[in-house]
């Protein structure tokens, strides 16, 4: 494409809220075969809400939630924010925690009132030798509804479960349909549980779900698709997504996302919905076609 046609293309796209970092990226959207979407904050609103609490028979709900709130108050994860808000909303006074530690992709731990409190995935419980018994089945039931369920352990014992749900953006399904019409394969990449991710994926028409990917491995998953000979565009919003955005042939950051993601990307989507993804692919193709 000539510089003028690219300028015209980027100008038109800017009106639509699609900001290319440079003209070369317009051209580069040509031939993209696979779109990889981050789940939380990209396909979904990224504003999870507390939905369910289950407590093991030896424990009391208020005590368990006060401990969970104490730990999660130290975490900056959107899941943590949802739990703290939900617990406070129940009128429960949150305890104080010490020795907080975040284990990216697995959960969090801290000491509350002398007891170690863990909140997170099955793997977190396994690696800490906490037996969850039949709780795994209840957890799976929440996950089939698209909720993210987290297990709670206090003093080395299974104490309960807490579930949050994040809703999909109203526009995600229609935007993914447009991507399909453009001949693109659409995958979703997340650190969340496989079943939760599949339930969300089904709601919006995702072709392929890649779940339970720890933050450091998101970029590797992009490389794997590239090794299959595919040209990949990655769309994300979080700090976690930055390496994957950089590795992808085209990185697209949601404009309301973190600065780190925006810096790593080639395109910023100001509108924050997935129609902009289809727009940018379409625009790149059109700009090229105009000069032929
Ligand atoms: P995503 O890619 O969806 O942002 P993450 O990689 O951040 O997911 O987290 C993966 C999983 O780790 C979560 O689904 C959750 O089970 C667990 N987890 C992460 N942060 C927390 C937290 N603050 N409290 C409890 N569990 C957490
Ligand atoms: Mg995200």
Topology summary:
Layout: H1 3-15, E1 18-20, H2 23-28, E2 34-38, H3 39-43, E3 49-55, H4 61-72, H5 78-89, E4 97-103, E5 107-112, E6 115-120, H6 122-127, H7 135-144, E7 148-154, E8 157-165, H8 172-181, E9 185-189, H9 194-204, E10 208-210, H10 218-227, E11 232-236, H11 242-247, E12 250-254, H12 259-264, E13 267-269, H13 275-290
Helix pairs in contact: 1-13, 4-5, 7-9, 8-13
The structure holds adenosine-5'-diphosphate (ADP) and magnesium ion.
How far the N terminus sits from the C terminus, by CA atoms, comes to 8 Å
Which CATH architecture of the largest domain is right? 3-Layer(aba) Sandwich
Counted by DSSP, the helix tally is: 13
What is the CATH topology classification name of the largest domain? Answer: Rossmann fold
How many E-type strands? 13
CATH homologous superfamily heading of the largest domain = HAD superfamily/HAD-like
Radius of gyration: 21 Å
Shape: elongated
Q: Report the portion of residues in β strands.
A: 15-25%
Largest sheet: 7 strands, mixed
Number of domains: 2
Give a quick set of tags describing it.
binds magnesium ion; binds adenosine-5'-diphosphate; seven-stranded mixed sheet; alpha/beta; 2 domains; six-stranded antiparallel sheet; single chain; 13 helices; Calcium-transporting ATPase, cytoplasmic domain N; 13 strands; Copper-exporting P-type ATPase
């Amino acid at each position: 494409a000539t510089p003028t046609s690219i300028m015209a293309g980027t100008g038109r796209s800017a009106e639509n809220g699609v900001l290319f970092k440079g003209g070369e990226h317009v051209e580069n959207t040509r031939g993209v075969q696979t779109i990889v979407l981050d789940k939380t904050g990209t396909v979904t609103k990224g504003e999870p809400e507390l939905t369910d609490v289950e407590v093991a028979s030896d424990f009391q709900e208020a005590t368990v939630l006060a401990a969970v709130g104490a730990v999660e108050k130290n975490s900056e994860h959107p899941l943590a924010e949802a739990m703290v808000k939900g617990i406070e909303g129940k009128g429960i006074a949150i305890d104080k925690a010490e020795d907080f530690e975040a284990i990216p992709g697995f959960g969090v731990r801290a000491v509350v009132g002398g007891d170690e409190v863990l909140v997170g995935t099955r793997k977190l419980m396994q690696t800490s030798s906490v037996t969850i018994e039949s709780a795994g089945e209840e957890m799976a039931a929440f996950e089939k509804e698209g909720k993210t369920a987290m297990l709670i352990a206090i003093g080395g014992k299974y104490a309960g479960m807490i579930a949050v749900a994040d809703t999909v953006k109203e526009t995600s399904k229609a935007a993914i349909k447009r991507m399909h019409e453009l001949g693109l394969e659409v995958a979703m990449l997340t650190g969340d549980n496989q079943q939760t991710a599949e339930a969300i994926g089904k709601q919006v028409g995702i072709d392929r779900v890649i779940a339970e990917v720890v933050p450091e491995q998101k970029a590797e998953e992009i490389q794997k698709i590239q090794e299959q000979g595919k040209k990949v565009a990655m769309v994300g919003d979080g700090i976690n997504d930055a390496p994957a955005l950089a590795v992808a042939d085209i990185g697209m950051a949601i404009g309301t996302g973190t600065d780190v993601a925006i810096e790593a990307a080639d395109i910023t989507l100001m509108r924050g919905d997935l129609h902009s993804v289809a727009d940018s692919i379409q625009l790149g193709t059109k700009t090229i076609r105009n000069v032929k």
